[in-house]
Specification:
By secondary structure, the protein is mainly beta. It has 2 domains: 5-105, RimM (Elongation Factor Tu (Ef-tu), domain 3); 116-181, Roll (SH3 type barrels), CATH 2.30.30.240. The protein contains 3 helices and 13 strands. It has helices at 40-44, 88-92, 116-119, and strands at 5-7, 14-24, 29-34, 47-51, 64-74, 77-82, 98-102, 123-126, 131-140, 145-151, 158-163, 169-173, 178-181. The strands form 2 sheets. A 6-stranded antiparallel barrel has the order 2-3-6-5-4-7. A 6-stranded mixed beta sheet has the order 11-10-9-8-13-12, with no helix packed on it. A hairpin with a 4-residue loop joins β8 and β9. It starts with a strand and ends in a 6-residue tail after the last strand.
Length: 187
């Protein structure tokens, strides 16, 4: 294992939130590509789990635990440093590593706010009780988010998109893994 990495097990609730791009500076800092436009989970968690890149040379194997000293935005880029990663060579050896954080360490959401990862897989039903499919993805279109739904009951594989806005979304029930919508199958 690399200096600064301790062998660990990936938590059952781990979510992939980013990737280490490159070393930054000479004191062990590294650039991070967050997968979210709002990388608050990366800032709030002081324990990141990393797996080596799927492609290219592997500088470590298995799951490593990285104890984060500081993460911040610098000139439009997210940079971070970890305890015991003290030089550029060690930071460079982390290049391409996939970053996972335990969902338990994510910041709490406000009422009627949801993490996208919580919506993936939910069943979508309209007011008439018709099953429209399951959420397979979400798209950010700028002013709003759009649910991408696979309709597994359609004669051929079809997807429908429903804006994730209050006028169409009646209820999101995470416990029942269901979203109630004001939407018809022929829209």
């Amino acid at each position: 294992m690399l200096p600064g990495l301790e062998a660990a097990a990936l938590p059952a609730d781990a979510i992939e939130v980013g990737r280490i791009l490159d070393a930054w500076g000479i004191k062990g800092w590294f650039k991070v590509l967050p997968y979210s436009a709002d990388p608050e989970a990366l800032f709030s968690s002081k324990l990141w789990f990393v797996l080596p890149s799927e492609k290219g040379a592997k500088t470590f194997d298995g799951v490593g635990e990285l104890k984060i000293k500081e993460a911040k935005v610098h000139s439009g880029t997210l940079v971070a440093c970890a305890y015991e990663v003290e030089d550029r060579n060690t930071a460079d050896a982390l290049r391409g590593a996939r970053i996972f954080i335990s969902k338990a360490n994510f910041p709490a959401v406000q009422e009627n706010e949801y993490y996208w990862v919580d919506l993936i897989g939910l069943e979508v039903i309209n007011r008439q009780g018709q099953r429209l499919g399951n959420v397979v993805d979400l798209l950010s279109t700028g002013p709003q988010t759009v649910l991408v739904i696979d309709d597994v009951q359609a004669p051929k594989a079809e997807q429908r998109m429903i804006p994730f806005v209050a006028i169409y979304i009646d209820d999101v029930n995470l416990a029942e893994r269901r979203i109630l919508v004001d939407w018809q199958p022929d829209y």
